[in-house]
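INTERNAL AUDIT FORM
Audit reference: QA-55
Scope: verify that the stored structure record matches its stored sequence.
Auditor: D.O.
Record contents follow.
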Amino acid sequence: MLLTLSACQPNSSTPIERWQHSIEGAYAADISNNAKLSAVSSIHHGISLWDLDKNALLFNWSQQQDSANNLVLAIDIADDNSYVLTASRENFALWNIDNGQSEGYWQVRDSNIRDVALSNNGEHVLIGKSNGTVVHVTIDSGRRLEFLGHNEKINSVDLLPNGRIALSGANDFVAYVWDTQSGQVIYRFNHPSRVTKVAIDPKGKYAFTADSKKSANIWDLKTGKLVSQLQYTNRQEVFSTVQFSSDGLHLLTGAPSRKVSLWDIKTGKRKQSWHVTPRDDIRPAGAVVYSVGFRDNSHIITESSSGYAELWQIK
């Protein structure tokens, strides 16, 4: 609700605009694939859904966050902007964006939730768990399919908008693309260290997998062939969020180090980078980039642990 206009000539650390979406920082956030909506989890506001075009608060949702196990640390907005999925370590909830109502709460008893993904119309939910299983749930029918391909803790999951193809990455150094109807593996992507981040292009063209050392790959989802590896000179880069551009030309990444980068998908080269505003109440000052989005061909938008949404210029 707070709008601050920054300097007229933006640089890598100066956004065009900045909006405060949570006081004293956020625990998690997700920007919709069309960069129209943002859902933010924080201790003071619960879960808030924002209209990013108008910077207007649409809904405030209450999901109990009174202990470390109850903090909402994973959020996913469906590709068609119909529902929001929010999850703590022990439970998850589905929220209807049209009317703001809750569609239900579910508890996970046998292990902790590590990451979640949601299909169009809120039909299918994907849950990556600390015991190495990934569960695909069809909400209306209650159908559950457990994917047992991994043998260590799941770190990241994603789902095609139609709910039919899943991608999961784990501490076993492997990322799998698999069929959610049969549980059959479609592709296996091996890494030299634990797989920390995965993402699927909503249009079904690409998959992204990255590990904790120095391998971040873009794959052709139709053939399973490697398209490119991200080119960076650092010893390692860790990614906290990934978004493909709708035209299939660029990849946007965010990191726990405040860094946001724009990459060329075909070559893997970094084209531009920015640094989000740090939290000023912690030392050393820092921020985790929770979500990134392409607003249009000339602008990107970010949400971070500092509690700010920020608009940036693509040069």
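Auditor finding: record pair retrieved intact. The first strand starts at residue 2 and ends at 5.
Action required: none
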